[in-house]
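Anyone up for a design puzzle?
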C-alpha cells in the first residue's frame, strides 16, 4: 500500500511504514538526476510494506559542481527526518527509512538515534549490493536499465574515474566529485544490462524484507543490520 493513495482509516496503527529517502543529483551524462530516488522508492514499494512518498532531496553537496543537483544539506535533511519520524510514529509502530544515496548517511546517523532516544522505533536501511561501484557506474546503470530503461542514455555511457572510492574520498571531501571525475561517473557503466540490474533490485528488496523481519538495530547509528 502506498499511503499517498490511501484513506486515513487504512493507515491506523500500521505495524511498519517505510519511507524512501533519495536525492536529486547528477549521475553522469547517461543517468537521470532522480536515480537515487527511483531506486529507494522501488525497493521500498516492492518490499510489500506500507510505503510513504519518497523524499526527493538529500545531502548532495559533493555533486553541486554539476547543474541540476539540488542539495538541502546534512543539517536540514536531519531536521526533516526527525520531524517526519515524530509525525509518522503517531500512526506507525515502526518506521524504516530506505536510503538510496550515500551522502544522506550523515543525516540518518544523527536523526535516527535521536528519534530512538525519544522512544520511537525507527531505523534506516541502505540500498546496495556487495561489490557495487561508487556512482553512476555499472551497478546503478544496470539497475536503471531494469527500472526505467527509457531514462538511460546508453549512447552517452562511458567510463569515469574507476579508482577505489577510498582513494578518491579525500579529494571529494575537500572539493567535489567534479574534481576527480569531469563526467561525474565513478566507475564504468559500459556493458551494464537490465538483467543484472533486476538481480540487484531483487537482492536489495529481499535484504530489506529480511532486515525488517529480524529488526536488529545498531543503536549507535540507527541502521538495520
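Challenge accepted. My sequence:
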Amino acid at each position: 500500500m502506498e499511503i499517498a493513495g490511501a484513506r486515513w482509516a487504512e493507515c491506523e496503527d500500521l505495524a511498519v511504514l517505510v519511507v524512501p529517502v533519495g536525492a536529486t543529483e547528477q549521475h553522469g551524462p547517461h543517468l537521470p538526476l532522480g536515480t537515487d530516488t527511483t531506486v529507494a522508492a522501488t525497493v521500498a514499494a516492492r518490499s510489500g510494506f506500507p510505503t510513504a512518498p519518497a523524499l526527493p532531496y538529500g545531502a548532495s553537496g559533493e555533486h553541486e559542481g554539476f547543474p541540476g543537483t539540488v542539495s538541502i544539506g546534512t543539517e536540514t535533511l536531519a531536521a526533516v527526518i526527525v520531524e517526519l519520524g515524530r509525525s509518522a510514529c503517531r500512526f506507525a509502530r515502526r518506521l524504516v527509512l530506505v536510503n538510496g544515496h550515500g551522502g544522506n548517511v550523515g543525516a540518518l546517523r544523527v536523526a535516527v538515534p535521536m528519534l530512538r532516544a525519544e522512544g520511537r522505533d525507527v531505523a534506516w536501511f541502505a540500498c546496495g549490493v556487495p561489490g557495487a561501484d561508487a556512482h553512476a557506474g555499472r551497478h546503478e546503470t544496470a539497475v536503471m536499465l531494469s527500472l526505467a530503461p527509457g531514462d538511460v542514455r546508453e549512447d552517452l555511457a562511458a567510463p569515469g574515474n574507476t579508482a577505489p572510492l577510498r582513494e578518491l574520498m579525500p579529494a571529494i571531501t575537500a572539493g567535489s566529485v567534479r574534481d576527480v571525475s569531469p563526467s561525474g561517473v565513478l566507475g564504468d557503466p559500459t556493458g551494464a544490462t537490465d538483467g543484472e540490474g533486476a538481480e540487484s533490485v531483487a537482492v536489495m528488496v529481499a535484504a530489506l524484507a529480511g532486515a525488517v523481519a529480524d529488526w536488529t538495530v545498531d543503536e549507535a547509528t540507527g541502521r538495520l543490520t
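A detail worth pointing out: The longest strand covers residues 17-21.
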